[in-house]
Design goal:
Radius of gyration: 18 Å
Shape: globular
Strand order of the largest sheet: 1-5-10-11-12-13
Helix content: 25-40%
Number of helices: 8
Amino acid sequence: MTSEITRAEVCVTACADAWSGAGEVLAHAVGVIPSISARLARLTHEPDLVLSDGECFFVSDPPPIGKSASSGLGTIESWAPFRSIFEILNTGRRHSMMGASQIDRFGNQNISAIGDWQRPKRQLIGVRGAPGNTVNHRVDYWISRHTARVFVEKVDVVSGVGNDRARAHTGTSLRFHDLGVVVTNLAVLDYAEDGSVKVRSFHPGVTADEVRANTGFDIDVSTTTITRFPSTEELRLIREVIDPANLRDKEVRA
């Protein structure tokens, strides 16, 4: 089984590892790979992680990706209407794994617009919950396609607050700012002492030159660590329980 491990499955377990130590907090997972990873973490090393079915229920026995508890799959623990999510967010008992259209060298995230914000070339989804997430609790990012168009020297619009802005802020509103990791289809990234993005591990088969060529700023690629493969049990859960329809391979490009 291990000889057939895909890049998507490596990405899932790398994302699942990001939930380690989260404890009893609400997992906010945006995208197929983050959603699989949160379920995998709950079923393995992080049993207290609180999962939503993506609609209005907290579930202890998560349904497969693409299914909700209202369809009769999964074990419902609690009802969580949308209005209650903001209350949870403000307490900090939440952990987000979001996407990004742009990320710069200090982890500032853009999901709002491309180009001059007054006359953008492309209008995106707006800042959405990114400001509140990065102010109140830990935030990780998932990037399905690691390119220099995503990893830029400076984002066009700041949606999620990066390390440089958080450290320069003189008030107390950013005291809970906590950027964790950035998992991409090429590597796992984290942050250096100065707050800049660096490589934590390369996915199997990926080289430092490949990451450097697909990043729009100078990035520390000095690590020799390789992202781990999923275990046999993790593979079983991914393939048979969480994502039997194999939606993961549609999101990841090796």
